[in-house]
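It is worth pausing here to work through a concrete case rather than discussing structure prediction in the abstract. The textbook approach is simple: state the sequence, then state the predicted structure, then interpret. We follow exactly that order.
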Amino acid sequence: MARSKELILESQDKKWQANALSLAVTVAGRYFPKDFLLKFFKEEMKMLQEASIVQDWINEGVEKGIEKGIE
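Step two, the predicted structure:
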């Protein structure tokens, strides 16, 4: 996993980095505890939040919260 992270961060394309890191975290989440992943990717968390898939999840959560608030 460390080598994958290293290879991803070598890319100059920040958007690709964010998306690749989100994929790496998703796959790693099947094998490693959440606490470990949060520590391992601590420095990349801001970038992960900007990943398109993560941003989609955040937006969906906000929309659901708004809908529940309206009900």
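Step three, interpretation. The mean pLDDT is 85. The CA atoms of residues 1 and 34 lie 14 Å apart.
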